[in-house]
Design a protein that fits this description.
Number of domains: 1
Largest sheet: 5 strands, antiparallel
Strand content: 5-15%
Number of helices: 10
Radius of gyration: 21 Å
Structural class: alpha+beta
Order of helices and strands: HEHHHHHHEHHEEEEEHE
Distance between the termini: 9 Å
Strand order of the largest sheet: 1-2-4-5-8
Length: 268
């Protein structure tokens, strides 16, 4: 039984207190200019995160409504960016991994405002890339390349392949409805709450530097298809945000990196 079949089975058999939620859903030389002494860092002109949410479910609903509305910025509005960057602890991360790897994002300490900004943008870049991959796999459906390189012998081959994206599938997301939330234990047959897994979850989440970390599972209907996503949400102070589209729960389910942001289909 594959991942989506497992989730569908649990969704059909479990009774949850949370219930269902519906979307509403050539010039002169330039004279040198003296550089003034550095001043204290001012507040950034652009901020990327919103005010946060009262619950993790509200943060995930914002993300899914953005997907439904085909509004990428709304999806990103659900995340902690500046807050996460300020609290992100790479020392904890590297001590857990026992390696320093170029594949880890972010991986350098934020020892000044410049590096803090770099961390912020690396966090955004890594999440945007995961969402981008999930969008690609969803749009292409059965034509998805599964990470393989596609070669083109002729210009016409490139044209033909790129035409695959213009299939109207993305617009189907506008029909998304009936968001409902499940517990990680519901979709993992209680593996999530096993003592060893809870220990690993706590260790793997510590580098966020948050006051509280949860995994939150959501299902939604997209026409006759089912959409699944399970991000990691964090509470900083009294506000909740998403911090990653991936999660310990998705890892337990064996969800591929290409589907971390969401996956959607029949019998997947």
């Amino acid at each position: 039984m594959n991942v989506m079949s497992m989730i569908l089975a649990f969704a059909l058999t479990c009774t949850l207190g949370l219930g269902g939620t519906s979307l509403t859903v050539t010039g002169e030389p330039v004279a040198p200019v003296a550089v003034p002494p550095a001043k204290a860092a001012a507040e950034p002109a652009v901020t990327y995160e919103g005010p946060g949410f009262d619950t993790p479910e509200a943060a995930l609903t914002c993300y899914l409504e953005g997907l439904k509305n085909l509004d990428f910025e709304q999806m990103l509005h659900a995340f902690a960016w500046e807050t996460q960057a300020r609290h992100y602890d790479v020392e904890v991360l590297h001590k857990r991994l026992r390696v320093y790897s170029p594949s880890v994002k972010p991986r350098m300490p934020s020892f000044n405002d410049f590096m803090l900004s770099a961390t912020l943008h690396e966090l955004r870049s890594s999440q945007v890339d995961l969402i981008y991959q999930s969008l690609e796999s969803y749009i292409l459906g059965e034509d998805y390349h599964q990470g393989r390189v596609i070669t083109f012998k002729e210009d016409a081959d490139a044209d033909a392949y790129l035409q695959k994206f213009d299939n109207g599938r993305l617009e189907n997301l506008r029909s998304m409805s009936n968001i409902r939330f499940l517990s990680p234990d519901t979709v993992t047959s209680n593996k999530f709450s096993m003592e060893k897994n809870q220990e690993n979850f706590i260790k793997q989440s510590a580098y966020y530097g948050a006051d509280e970390i949860v995994n939150i599972v959501a299902l939604a209907d997209v026409g006759s298809d089912m959409l699944y996503c399970c991000p990691t949400a964090a509470r900083y102070g009294d506000r909740w945000y998403l911090v990653s589209v991936s999660s310990f729960t998705s890892s337990l389910l064996g969800v591929s990196i290409n589907y971390q942001a969401f996956m959607c289909g029949q019998g997947l």
